[in-house]
Amino acid sequence: MPTYAKSASVISRAAFALVASFLLALSFNAQARDTKHHFSIAEALASPAYEGKLNSDIKLYFGDQSHPTPTAEHGEFVTNKKTNAFGKADITACQWVLLSALITLQERAAAEGGNSVVNIRSYYKKNEFSSATEYECHAGAVIAGVALIGDVVTLPN
Which residues fall within 8 angstroms of residue 140, CB to CB, at 6 or more apart? Predict the structure, then answer.
C-alpha cells in the first residue's frame, strides 16, 4: 500500500474517532438536564398554540376540580408524550407537549364512549402530582415530556 494511502487511512480513522467522540459528548450533555417544572394549566390553555386544537365536546377536569357525578365510568388511562425542546424555552416546549397529552386523553375518551376526563394528574415516571392549577413537565436540552393519568367518564349534559 502506498504511503499516501496509509496516511489517508490514518487521517480518516482519526477524523472518524474525533467526530464520534464529539457526538458522544453531545449526547451525554443533552441527556444530563432533566429539569422538573410545575407550570400553570390556565396559562397553557390560554396559549395561542391551543386555539381550536382541543375538542370542546370532551371536558377536562384537573386534580380535584369539581364536576358533576359521572353517569358512567370507562376506566383510567395514561398518556406519556415527548416533544422536541431543542432551542426552545422550557415553558414553550412544555405547553406544546401538554397539548399533545391532552389531545390524546380526549381521543381516548371519545374512543371509550366518554365525554369527559376527570381527576387528571401528572404521572411522570409513575410519580403522581395532582393539582387543579398546575401540571408537571420535565425538560432537557433536547426533549420535554409530560405524562398524564385521568379517568374517562360520561358526565350528564
Answer: 30, 31, 32, 33, 34, 35, 85
> What are the boundaries of each domain within the chain?
1-32, 34-154
Fold of 34-154: Translation Initiation Factor IF3 (3.30.110)
The grid coordinates listed for 97 are 407537549
| pTM score of the predicted model | 0.80
CA distances from 71 to 60, 139, 150, 155, 156 (A): 16, 38, 16, 6, 6
- Cα separation, 45 vs 104, in Å, equals 15
Segment 68-91 shows an average pLDDT of 98
DSSP string, 84-121: E-TTS-HHHHHHHHHHHHHHHHHHHHHHHT-SEEEEEE
Residue in this structure with the C-alpha cell 409513575, named with its chain if needed: 126
Q: How confident is the model at residue 1 (pLDDT cuts 50, 70, 90)?
A: low
